[in-house]
Amino acid sequence: MKTFTISAALALLTSLVSAAPATTQHEARQFQAQITFIGAADGVFTLSVPTDGSLFTITNPLSVSKISSQGGATCGFSGIDGSLTVLVGAQTVDVGPPQTQISGSCRAF
């Protein structure tokens, strides 16, 4: 019985050690999505945002009328007056009505 317990513990330890590189490889694949916020009178700013699904805060007060993504992720953005804007991949989407964006979240494909 003691031999079985030791063998089972070694097998478990071996499986955990071999699983560790997969996590590292997954983290290495994470990238930052490039999101451009476009407002009136040529107002524009770009953010590099995480693509792990976490919520991030947007602090720029520009009233945004369009949001553009270079692709590779699905993103959602919330405006100060309640707008919800969703982008899937590389596209530019109107924000209606134009308003300051306060938060967002992106998930890589």
Overview of the molecule:
By secondary structure, this protein is α+β, with helices and mostly antiparallel strands. Helices cover 26% and strands 58% of the residues. The chain is built from 1 helix and 5 strands, in the order H-E-E-E-E-E. A 5-stranded antiparallel β-sheet has the order 2-1-4-5-3, with no helix packed on it. Strand 4 and strand 5 form a beta hairpin. It is globular, with a radius of gyration of 21 Å. The termini are far apart.
Low-confidence stretches: 1-26
Which percent range fits the helix content?
A: 25-40%
Radius of gyration over alpha carbons?
Answer: 21 Å
> From N to C, what is the helix and strand string?
HEEEEE
Shape: globular
Q: Tell me the total number of β-strands.
A: 5
Residues in β-strands, percent: over 45%
Query: Structural class, from helix and strand content?
Result: alpha+beta
List the topology elements.
Layout: H1 2-29, E1 32-39, E2 44-50, E3 52-57, E4 63-79, E5 84-108
Antiparallel strand pairs: 1-2, 1-4, 3-5, 4-5
Question: Summed up, what is this model?
Answer:
The chain is of the alpha+beta class and 109 residues long.
Task: Provide key terms for this protein.
5 strands; alpha+beta; 26% helix; single chain; 5-stranded antiparallel β-sheet; 109 residues; globular
